[in-house]
Specification:
Blueprint (H helix, E strand, L loop, with lengths): L23 H16 L6 H17 L14 H27 L5 H25 L6 H24 L5 E2 L2 E2 H18 L7 E3 L2 E2 H27 L3 H6 L2 H14 L4 H28 L9 H12 L5 H34 L10
Antiparallel strand pairs: 1-2, 3-4
């Protein structure tokens, strides 16, 4: 079943990508990005650049998995340096895919969807990379960081759904600054070791807790501003509130799951599956925005995740393993089918190839 209604496909050709402008670091790095984009052959499709960047992010975390999955084991410095470089390459590819599309006149709603979709997945993977790289373990602070990163991205996408303008920076602090801070964190950890984050500063408060609270403080200020901006301009307050229900359920599901002892045994799998659910919600918001559809408050994936969270309360150890595998298969299948369906539907309607440059 096609996600985009037939009568809404026509709006894809009318959509225009608007942003809130560049951050301070965006302006500083723009000459480098422009130079880098000019090095690329014109035969490389922008969507392929987006995909290459996403692969870099996947590698940044996967490279750490052989050394630990509980977010407590120290990661070898060389792996941390490589992961930092992978995030740098992702960030660079993410900045130049749009430049390549404009350079060869291949801009399209499909490109915007793939870019935003990969960014939503990237949010979860960068958070996982930092948690593992810093060896912070699983606790209320790290879960708060993971949930907070996803919530902030969701709200920015939710704001775009309501205002048709993508917020790329807040008070000159944007995605680029956050990504370069992630790179710096991994480099610092590689040089000084993860113990630097556990050093006590004041009253038993660690460096990690200070860094996390500063970042989340900035994120929460931005979240408040986003909420105020949307509600200030909303003509349908009730519908606006209903469109926030999914993110509330999503966060509550993660809090519920994180409170269970089995979380430590299956943390990467569960958090990645949660990331897929989060990504699907964001993609649905983006599609609803460009195709003028209503973003529904009821989402089946969130119900499935809640059932999984509730089930592990009464299951024994062996049954929990079966539940985790079933949850994994169900979410991966649903997410893969959803993404394939949407990409195929848009590419067919607009008559454009996904990873090739359309012939003039």
């Amino acid at each position: 079943m096609a996600f985009i209604k037939q009568e809404n496909l026509k709006y894809l050709t009318e959509s225009k990508y608007n942003t809130s402008g560049s951050s301070w670091l965006d302006n500083k790095l723009n000459p480098f990005w422009s130079w880098f984009a000019e090095l690329l052959p014109r035969s490389i499709a922008p969507n392929l650049i987006t995909l290459l960047g996403f692969i870099c992010i996947i590698l940044s975390y996967i490279l750490m998995l052989p050394f630990g999955t509980t977010f407590e084991e120290p990661i070898p410095p060389i792996i941390l340096f490589i992961s930092a470089f992978m995030i740098f390459m992702y960030q660079t590819f993410d900045a130049i895919d749009g430049k390549q599309s404009r350079r060869i006149n291949q801009s399209s709603p499909l490109g915007m969807l793939l870019d935003h979709g990969c960014d939503s997945l990237t949010t979860s993977f960068i958070a996982l990379t930092l948690l593992q790289g810093m060896s912070l373990g699983l606790n209320k602070h790290t879960i708060y960081m993971y949930i907070g990163a996803q919530t902030s991205f969701f709200l920015i996408t939710w704001e775009e759904y309501h205002t048709h303008c993508c917020r790329t920076q807040f008070m000159n602090w944007g995605v680029t600054e956050a990504q370069y801070m992630s790179i710096m964190v991994l480099v610092i950890t590689a040089i000084f070791g993860p113990g630097i984050w556990q050093a006590n500063i004041i009253g038993g408060i660690t460096v990690a807790e200070i860094v996390l609270h500063i970042n989340m403080g900035i994120a929460n200020l931005a979240n408040i501003f986003v909420l105020f901006n949307v509600f200030k301009n909303s003509q349908k307050k009730r519908e606006t509130i209903k469109s926030l229900i999914p993110v509330f359920i999503m966060d509550m599901n993660m809090v519920l799951i994180a409170s269970k002892s089995m979380m430590a045994n299956y943390a990467p799998i569960i958090m990645i599956m949660h990331g897929l659910i989060f990504s699907e919600l964001c993609i649905k918001l983006i599609i609803s925005s460009v195709s003028k559809m209503t973003f529904e408050w009821f989402q089946a994936e969130l119900v499935i995740e809640f059932i999984f969270a509730a089930a592990v309360l009464i299951l024994d150890k062996q049954s929990v393993f079966v539940a985790v595998v079933a949850f994994l298969v169900c979410i991966v299948w649903r997410y893969s089918f959803f993404v394939w369906n949407v990409v195929y539907q848009i590419s067919e309607y607009l008559n454009i190839p996904v990873f090739k440059v359309k012939a003039s």
